[in-house]
Amino acid sequence: MDDRDPEAFRALYRAHYRTVCRFLTARTDRGLVEDVAAETFLVAWRRQSELPSEVVPWLLATARRCLANQRRARGRRDALVDRLGELIACDAGGVEDALARREELRAVLSALAACTERERELLLLSYWDGLAPREIAAVLELNPVLLRARLHRASRRLREALAGEETRPGPAAPRRPQNTIDLTET
After folding, report:
1. 67 in Cβ contact with 32 (< 8 Å)
2. Rounded Cα–Cα distance for residues 43 and 94 (Å)
3. Distance between CA 160 and CA 153 in Å, rounded?
4. What is the rounded CA–CA span in Å between residue 132 and residue 139?
5. Where are the alpha helices (DSSP H) in 26-132?
6. SS3 helix, strand, coil % of the chain, rounded to 5?
7. In whole angstroms, what is the distance from residue 104 CA to residue 138 CA?
8. Cβ atoms within 10 Å of 96's Cβ, excluding its own
9. Which string of b and e fits 37-70 if b means at least 16 CB within 10 Å?
10. Can you tell me the distance from the alpha carbon of 26 to that of 23, in angstroms, rounded to the nearest whole number?
11. How far is CA 46 from the centre of its chain?
12. What is the per-residue pLDDT across 47-88, written as a single tens digit (0 to 9) for each?
């Protein structure tokens, strides 16, 4: 059952929206202020039953965390754009380079497939999403020491799988199943 009170929330919003926006304006560019304020009040709506009696400090602390999340997301987005830019710049190298990159990608995907689901999640959070080990530990709700050990093992398994891909010969010719009858012999 939903115990949120829309009227109480409207009153909270009207009373403190400007305060939250003023707080954010001093800390970020104007383009983000309304988005982060909206996110802050969304958190307040979801956690309405948990709001303390002194709500302004709670709202400002929540706004600060929402702003930090926005900045981290922007950093990851910018890093991804940079990585994609490097890939696009590499595309000008010609057919041989494109084929080599395709083989490298196939090898990485094959090596990831050789890892367990838990290892893949750790590797993707680290290398694709760019999260630090302490951030991965928070996402997965794991002890940071345990997380570092698991990430180390997953990275080692990925390197081993990649090394195995390098020494593996190309695809073998398809084999005929042993229990089939060859109709060309009759």
Report:
1. yes
2. 50
3. 10
4. 11
5. 30-46, 55-90, 95-114, 117-123
6. 80, 0, 20
7. 31
8. 8
9. bebbbebbeeebeebeeeeeebbbebbeebbeee
10. 6
11. 23
12. 999 999 999 999 999 999 999 998 888 888 787 777 766 665
59: tokens are 């709202």
Q: Which residues are within 8 A (CB) of 98 and not within 5 positions of it... i.e. 6 or more apart?
A: 91
Measure the CA–CA gap between 136 and 126, rounded to whole angstroms. 7
Percent of the chain topping pLDDT 70: 80
8 A C-beta contact, residue 39 and residue 20: no
Residues 59 and 42 sit within 8 Å (Cβ to Cβ):
no
C-alpha span between 161 and 149 (Å, rounded): 18
Angle, CA of 7, 8 and 12, to the nearest 5°:
115
State how far the Cα of 164 lies from the Cα of 68, in Å rounded to an integer.
41
The token duo for 117 is: 């689901």
